[in-house]
Amino acid sequence: MPRLIKQGAIVEDDWLPAQEDGAGDAHILTLEQWTQRADKQGLAVQLEPGQAPSPLFDVLQEIPL
C-alpha cells in the first residue's frame, strides 16, 4: 500500500484509487461521485487540479489534509 503523511506521521494508505464508473466505500471518490452521495460522512474525496474545494465546505467542518 502507498504511504502518506497524515497528522504529521507517515502511515499506510488503505484507500483505493478513484474509479470513474463508480466506487465502493473503500475507494476514494471523485468530487462528482462525492457530491452525489447522500451520506458523505467518512468518505475520501479526490480533487483534481483546478477543482476548488468549495463544494466540500457546506458538509465538512474540518478538512483533514
Termini gap: 18 Å
Return the structural class: alpha+beta
* Main sheet overview: 2 strands, antiparallel
| Percent of residues in β-strands | 15-25%
How many helices? The count is 2
The counted number of beta strands is 4
Order of helices and strands: EEEHEH
| Outline | globular
The stretches of 5 or more residues where confidence is low (pLDDT under 50) are none
Major β-sheet strand ordering: 1-2
Q: Give the rounded overall mean pLDDT.
A: 76
Helix fraction bin: 10-25%
Rg, please? 12 Å
Describe the structure.
It is built from two helices and four strands; from the N terminus they run βββαβα. Helix 1 links the parallel strand 3 (29-30) and strand 4 (45-46). The chain has a domain at 16-57. It starts with a strand and ends in an 8-residue tail after the last helix. Helix content is 15%, strand content 18%. It has helices spanning 31-36, 54-57; strands spanning 3-6, 9-12, 29-30, 45-46. It has 65 residues and is of the alpha+beta class. Strands 1-2 form a two-stranded antiparallel ribbon.
Detail the topology: elements first, then pairings:
Blueprint: E1 3-6, E2 9-12, E3 29-30, H1 31-36, E4 45-46, H2 54-57
Parallel strand pairs: 3-4
Antiparallel strand pairs: 1-2
Descriptive tags:
single chain, 65 residues, alpha+beta, two-stranded antiparallel ribbon, two-stranded parallel ribbon, 2 helices
